[in-house]
Each structure stands twice: as C-alpha cells, then as structure tokens.
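Re: weekly structure request thread

Next one in the queue (270 aa):
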Amino acid sequence: MKYWFIIHSLEAYNEHPDFIGKEKNRSGKIEKVKKGDRIVYYATGDSVVVGTFDVIKGKEEWTNDKHWKGYMVCMKIKPRMIAKHPHYLPIHDLIEQIDPALSLFPNRKFVPIKFKDRTAVEINNKDFRGIEKLIKSYRPISNLFQGAPNDGNLGKPMDLGVLNYAPTSEQGVVALFVHFMNKLKDHEFVKIEFIRAGFPDACVIEKEGNLYNRKYVEFEFESSKFREHVKNKNHRTIKCDYVVSWENDYYSCPIEVIELKSEIAKLMEK
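Done, posted below.
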C-alpha cells in the first residue's frame, strides 16, 4: 500500500467525487496509483484538502466523458474522511496545525511551485495519519465576515432613486446610469449591449431619429480621469462616444461628457 497527495480541483471533485483522473499526456505519477492505495485529495486553486480516500479500482481509460474531455487516465475512489463542506481544510491550516510538521512541508511553508504541473506526490504513512487526525478534529472559523459593518466612504445623503447617497466611485456612476439612462434629456438610450472590464467600459444602444446606433461609453467618477485614456496611444485608436461621470471637471474633453450629477438634478426637479 502506498500513500499519495493527489493534486486535483474542486471542479473535478464536484463533477466526479468518486474518481481521480488526468489527461493521458499529462498524467505523470497519477498512473502509479494502484488499487488499495490511499490518497489525500488536494484541490489546487481553492488550496484546500477535500479529504482522504481509498483507491478501490485501478487504472481506467476514458474518452469523451461528459465533464472530463479527451483521453483520461482515471481511478475509482471511496471516501474515508471528508473535511467539512464548504470550507474543507485550508492547506495553510493543515501545514500550521499538524505537529510534528509534515515531511511534505518540513519548514511549515507552502511552496506552490512544488506542485506545479504535478498530479501525485507520494507521502509516508505518518503524514497520512496526521492529516486524517486533523481532518477529524478541524473546526473551520464560523464567524468569518460576521463582524462590524463597514458603512464608511459614503457620499452626501440624497434621494437618487436607486441610491440614498451620492456616489463616491465609478461603481456608483454605473448604477446611476443603468437606472436613469432611459430618462436623460438629450439622449435616448434604450439598451445596454454590454458592460465589461476593458476600454471602453460599455456599449449602449441610442435612438437617434428613426435609427438605433451603438454608442461606446467610458464610466468615470470624475471626468478628468478620462485624461489617462487620452494619453494612452492604444486607447486613442478605439471608438468611444461618451464619458459618463458623476462630476464633469474635464472641460476640454475631446468627447461628450454626460454629467449625471446635473442631469439627475434636472430630473428630480420635475
């Protein structure tokens, strides 16, 4: 019997909780795992240990599985001890709380490069038993994100329909634009095609006469922030029709600025 530290993912575990596997051309040492061996299932990305398992069936070869595409080398597994869902056992807690230190992490430091492009690392019986003991006794922190609320960094109290405070960031500008875009006086925006992380931030459909045209929008809290895009040689070659901001402090802006602060004030007067 051998003991293995298997590097997989929570996505793979959710898709096939009763199998471990890897593409044939990247299978590495996972092919050495045999029926009767025991494994520690480590989910990289989330950096958690899911639990320990017995390998109950040796190597199988799959092709075109519903979830695992391509030519796969797989082994059937059966759970021995599963860490508490959904937190499981964070790798840093595993390293710090087991005493004596695991031979896999002798300096109690997690070195990601140690597991890069690896599928299985053989461990000793002592490490395996220590991990199972910790899984059994481990209690995840139960009060995460249950502390005092953070209500700072709010703008001036005002009734903006969708907001109770003036925005203090670009995110607030986006929220206000989405809420008021159909009501702005000099523009007839009818739909948002997309919002993204990229320049420009959004594409909207604007009705002009009997036609509907795509217009590209960059959101800024203060329009002067748009100067960064004006200085950017690549951005200057990309179409952008409007800067939508809370305040307009860029009076020489080369494209039209829609200042929501004044536009919404006009709407509120009605």
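The helical segments are 10-15, 91-97, 125-137, 170-180, 227-231, 260-269. The two ends are 80 Å apart (CA to CA).
Next request, please.
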